[in-house]
Design goal:
alpha/beta, 3 domains, 502 residues, 9% strand, NADP, binds 6-phosphogluconic acid, Rossmann fold, Single alpha-helices involved in coiled-coils or other helix-helix interfaces, seven-stranded mixed sheet, three-stranded antiparallel sheet, N-(1-d-carboxylethyl)-l-norvaline Dehydrogenase, domain 2, globular, 19 helices
Amino acid sequence: QNCNIGFVGLGVMGKNLALNLADHGYRVAGFDLDANKIQDVLDTEERERPDTKKEARIIGCSNMENMLSNLAKPRVVVVLVPAGQPVDIVCNNLIKAGIESDDIVVDCGNSQWTDTIRREAEYKDYFKFFGTAVSGGEVGARFGPSLMPGGDADSWKHLQPMWEAVAAKVDENGKPIISNTPGKPVTEGEPCTAYLGPNGAGHYVKMVHNGIEYADMQLICEAYHLLRSLLGYEPEEIGKLFAQWNQGELDSYLVEITADILQQYDAATGAPLVDMILDSAGQKGTGRWTSISATQMGVPAGIISESVYARALSTLTTEREHAAGILTAEVESGEIAAEDVEKAIEEALYCAKICAYAQGFQIMRAAEKEYDWTFNFSDIAKIWRGGCIIRASFLQRIADAFDGNRELENLLLNDYFADTMAKKQAGLRKAVVLAAQSGVPTPAFFSALAYFDGYRSEVLPANLLQAQRDYFGAHTYERVDGEPGQKYHTFWQEEGRPERKV
Ligand code: 6PG
């Protein structure tokens, strides 16, 4: 019973997280239904262990009973299997294998938050079910992910030292401290993990992270598409431009990898590698869940939703091919200075990014009420500064904004962001105009501008909309000069159109 933590599921994420824990001195008991995966993690640990005489920190277990018998109590078991039914199958098998009510089972998959809420209640007589979402892909899991824990506070106290050890770290300026060398983990700096709240809070925050990730990625793709279509730039040229942008306010992991991707060539054909990749985007659901959750709570999150739809539209490859032969764009072409276009697109990307993050944080603010959570928005921004896919220096600005005012209604209202939108919105407007004139689809840019203009409008045509609703369905309306909450109905078909209080 000398292992600190058990693992069920030693696929890429499970294996790398187990190796990360071992690097930090924790002893891991690992189990997987596939014996090859167990062997693989043991072989990797042996290969990577700097001192071959040192004792192995990961042991392989042939079944769950064996894994449990190797763990110190209360036992902590990390489950890293595909989200959905497999998590429940593992939970039930752990019960059969003798897990106890004080033990903690941690779901580290991309589970839907509603499942986490349900599971915590459903398994409470058998063990403590705890959620921890992991971001950062396989490299993050191996050398420092962003960890988003949610569950009961006592379990968190038990998990906290381990989670803080393996999480990504940032320095005093909020910049990630990176060491991708096995056996030499980063031990200093602020860890990218913080307790986010009970039951499904961690998985919810991760889902919103992914919704923002979808928007971030789509916006970068639209910037690339515009540069290519308007200026005729080759991918390599755009990659270099992105690398340059990455030195400024747009500094982020996603811009960095995009710059790298665009400068690669296909070994077989010599063509830019990006041109050899089919333009049909996959998705596993987290962006869609974010959009659905926002819609259900009535939160305007159009940029995130448009990013989900853009992926859906991209998959209509045969239909698009067919339509391309029928539907034409009547476009305007004119001389545009490349420098101006580049500047406009760079500004557009930053403005739209601000709007997308504003939407993401609005979704979480609404979820607080819906699920009775209390989020620390500064902590959320801080734990996204390192390790995760949307890591960016920009997140420090968000943390500062919420540190300054926890009740900030919308990120756009923070001085820095309001000022940036004032200074750079011309670029977003120009990019949208150019896209419209030249027929380049940029739904996320359009949506960002519409959100900004809608949010800053004191008057919207929703008065007319209310009149329409009242006209055809007697849905009533409030008057600008009436008591708040007092409803009125106009008898639109009657002589003199009489209005009555309802
Ligand atoms: C992360 C990523 C990770 C994964 C997404 C991608 O934070 O590490 O978000 O969770 O890459 O699930 O999802 P799609 O397949 O839907 O793009």
